[in-house]
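G., the chain you wanted modeled:
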Amino acid sequence: MAKSIVLYGGQFNPIHIAHMVVASEVNAFIKPDVFYFIPSFISPLKEHTDYLEGRYRVDMIQSVIDDLGFGRICLNEIERRGQSYTYDTVMYILDKHPDAKLYLVIGTDQYNQLHKWYKINELKSYITFVIVNRDKTTQEVESDMLSITIPRIDISSTLIRKRVKNNENIQALVSPSVEQYIREEGLYES
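Predicted structure as tokens:
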């Protein structure tokens, strides 16, 4: 039987409670054999302010994996450097696991930008998209995609970076281990 693999990519700058909720809900829904967190080096469709070196983001993701009790980190995009296209990452995973059933987690914001994605039609032939609804309304998705509704949590990495810079509390926004790491490493302070 083919392995089922979930791919959950993002900048994770930093990884926070909402990311953890998405991962937990998708993991419970899909019940994959492998759940990969995939930190991007540079995302082609996002602005890049407050960029943080990959090693710090990887350390924070690992602490969340330890807290959640599931997951692995795929370093392909960080090691590849440059812009990170999902298509290239999927080809890398399929090269390692040719018979795997792949699920790619995205939010409704990315779903509404799929027409801008690199090689989107080819990508759709290799994976099943898992659309995470975080709004009050549920996004209608294409019939070959899955849709999961999770509790709405208004947390963003931008908000966390801003609060750290202003020396404000982030305790309810990130896991205790991530908060401790941010404080110990002096991340986002300037």
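The mean pLDDT is 91.

Shout if anything looks off.
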